[in-house]
Amino acid sequence: DAVTLITNFEEEGDKWQGGGVTDSEVYYEGASSLSLISIDHGETTSYLKKDLDLTNLEFVEFMAHVSDATAFEAMTLDFGDLEAKNYYRYTISNLNNGWNLVQIPKKQFVPFIEPDNDFDWHKIQKVQFNLTSRVDAVLMVRLDMLRAINNFYSYVKDWKVAGDRQKMFLGLYPQGEGRKLLARTYGGSQAVLGENKNLTDFVLTASVSPQTSSRVCLFARGNYNNNYCYYFLI
């Protein structure tokens, strides 16, 4: 229950409606992403009808690939009812070219709820993205791995990460019916299990599945603050 998968934007999965199209050329995981294109300040909207109970939500995260950051005007993410009369909205900004990890705390969503309406996070029926480019510009944004993080501490409590990069570095990855630990890095990060102390005679085993052609290593018997360690490079 630590993570609620909202959608992975796969072609055979949830059906998004509106102006978005499935993109099998640029994606972060799986085999496709959802591509939104805005031209000359026009707004493009794509939405998914799905009943969700996000009562325990801590923050929402997803991957966003930007074609041209100079063409980016605004993008919003809404969680609301079917008629879009009541919803929670967050306005996304400051994205860079290429892939961006977007993480939005629940308290930063702005509520737009009619008076005397009992709409709340446990009554979500629609998820919607709205994208707008700058004037005389063409903007393409691909979306992937949209999920709700309900209890982040439950799966990172045994791991130690340098600085404040824990939320950026560690996540959960759906595989089959279960979850595996996901490591995402921008430039270089390392994490160690905090309780494996005073081991002198041991065998270290792990199943590692690199998602890109970048260098990946098993980091053992090391100092995660200064990167000194023993490691096995893949």
> How much is the average pLDDT?
89
Q: Could you list the spans in which at least 5 consecutive residues all have pLDDT below 50?
A: none
Bulk shape: globular
Radius of gyration: 20 Å
Helix/strand order: EEEEEEEEEEEEHEHEEEEE
Put simply, the count of helices is: 2
Structural class of the secondary elements? mainly beta
CA distance, first residue to last residue: 31 Å
Helix-residue proportion: under 10%
What is the tally of beta strands? 18
Question: Which descriptors would you attach to this protein?
Answer:
234 residues; mainly beta; 6-stranded antiparallel beta sheet; 2 helices; 18 strands; 4% helix; 49% strand; globular
Question: How would you portray this structure in words?
Answer:
The chain is mainly beta. The chain contains two helices and 18 strands. Strands 1, 3, 4, 6, 9 and 12 form a six-stranded antiparallel sheet that branches. A hairpin with a 6-residue loop joins strand 7 and strand 8. The longest helix is centred in the middle third of the chain and has 5 residues, at 152-156. The protein starts with a strand and ends with a strand.
